[in-house]
Write a structure and sequence with these properties.
The chain has one helix at residues 13-16; strands at 33-47, 54-71, 74-83, 89-95, 102-105, 108-110, 117-122. It is mainly beta. A 7-stranded antiparallel beta sheet has the order 4-3-2-1-7-6-5, with no helix packed on it. The protein is elongated and about 85 Å long. The N and C termini lie far apart (71 Å).
């Protein structure tokens, strides 16, 4: 017959702790100046199965950022949308001369230069 106390193992609290190293996360935006940040709903124009029609589908909810940076002394801007949670980058587009935003209504902005992607739909909009 086994002695139940002989099978017991003592675990000390300091032995059970896990020590993790802090690791710096780089976004690629470290040398950029943020001009505008807003929560947004990103939409994408998807063709239907028969490819004869298309409709807007939600591509993600996240943070839209308009950033300014310099390349060889030239001022450049880009639009970045990072999805909520672990979704990562949903949109990363350089703003270029001639890129004209168009407003569908008071709450929605898009650009034909982004092709089938619409952006800057504030998340408070339905």
């Amino acid at each position: 017959e086994e002695d139940p106390e002989a099978c017991q193992v003592e675990i000390r609290r300091e032995d059970a702790q896990v020590h993790l190293e802090e690791k710096k996360t780089e976004t690629g935006e470290e040398d950029e100046e943020n001009i505008v940040t807003m929560r947004t709903k990103l939409w994408i124009l998807k063709k239907d199965d028969d490819a004869s029609t298309a409709s807007w589908k939600v591509a993600g909810l996240g943070e839209l950022r308009l950033n300014k940076c310099f390349d060889d002394g030239k001022e450049l801007f880009r639009i970045i949308v990072r999805g909520a949670g672990a979704a990562g980058v949903v949109l990363n587009s350089r703003v270029f001369e001639g890129m004209k935003p168009e407003s569908a209504d008071a709450k929605k902005v898009g650009s034909p230069h982004l092709g089938h992607i619409g952006y800057a739909f504030p998340s408070t909009a339905t």
